[in-house]
Amino acid sequence: MIKNVTVLGAGTMGHGIAHVFARHGCKVSLYEPFDAVRLSAPEKIREELQFMVDEDYISKEDMENAIANITIYDNLEEAAKNADYAIEACPEKMELKQELFGKLDKICPPHTVFATNTSSLKLSEMIQYLPEERQKRCMVSHWYNPAYLLPIAELSKFGNMDEDVFNEVYELYVRCEKKPVRVLKDITGMVANRLLHAQAREAFHLVEIGAATAEDVDQALKYGPCFRNATTGMLEVSDMGGLDVWLAGEDNMLPALDNSDKACDAMRNLVAEGNLGIKTGKGFFEYPEEKRGQIQMDFYRRLIVQLKASKNYD
């Protein structure tokens, strides 16, 4: 059983991944080489756990136990030397991840499973310089942001790992109340991001051609397809609606949908103008500075309501 987890990187994803494992009884070593990020991690972790307490998702005792299970390091060897499972959540740079895995191979015990949180880089390329035996214990373990509120975890099952090793990791994620998705091919974007970007491409396109406002495109998604898909998957919805009906619909609709192989000009223009979304105050929508914090918290509250509801989906 995996008991000792090392998380490499305490930034946007890493600190959240760390406290999920810690909340479910793992001893977590959180490694971060950059002082500013490392020193801010304890406060971020406590704030997120306190939010879960305030929303009646976990108890105060759960929070304190999770915090007690996390040790933060600036020394890679100290952080990784006892790891059963080591997951990196570093910037999406292939050379950086290759270098990190090379160092870990010299530090970690032979049984340690190496995982990457990437969804856009090829695992086969990332681990190509590792010894053959170590490659058999490497995988993608892709989390969605925010890591502590989104239940999904995509786990690669590309054929390089023994079945018992994969199953050990799968059971770890089940223990942590995640919903693991087995990804069988080393494809860009794994599964969830490919589905996400297929939907996003059409949403952006509809705004760009003036078919609907940004507000109404989001309204259509929230109270139409996404409302239904929150409880019932796309393929199950198709079965329930009748595959003959869906076949006719696909044949009629697909020729009319956007099939661009690059981001739409509407988004490209916003970025060129420096309108990057909530962090700059404007994107498809406007975010007054005095309201940004509340808007962000409302987003997290909607997610935790959904997380609670998802307990009844199975």
UniProtKB/TrEMBL annotation:
Residues 189-287 form the 3-hydroxyacyl-CoA dehydrogenase C-terminal domain. GO terms for biological process: fatty acid metabolic process. Residues 4-186 form the 3-hydroxyacyl-CoA dehydrogenase NAD binding domain. InterPro entries: 3-OHacyl-CoA_DH, 3-OHacyl-CoA_DH_NAD-bd, 3HC_DH_C, 6-PGluconate_DH-like_C_sf, 6PGD_dom2, NAD(P)-bd_dom_sf. Pfam families: 3HCDH (PF00725), 3HCDH_N (PF02737). Gene3D superfamilies: N-(1-d-carboxylethyl)-l-norvaline Dehydrogenase, domain 2, NAD(P)-binding Rossmann-like Domain. GO terms for molecular function: NAD+ binding; oxidoreductase activity, acting on the CH-OH group of donors, NAD or NADP as acceptor. This is 3-hydroxyacyl-CoA dehydrogenase family protein. It comes from Coprococcus catus.
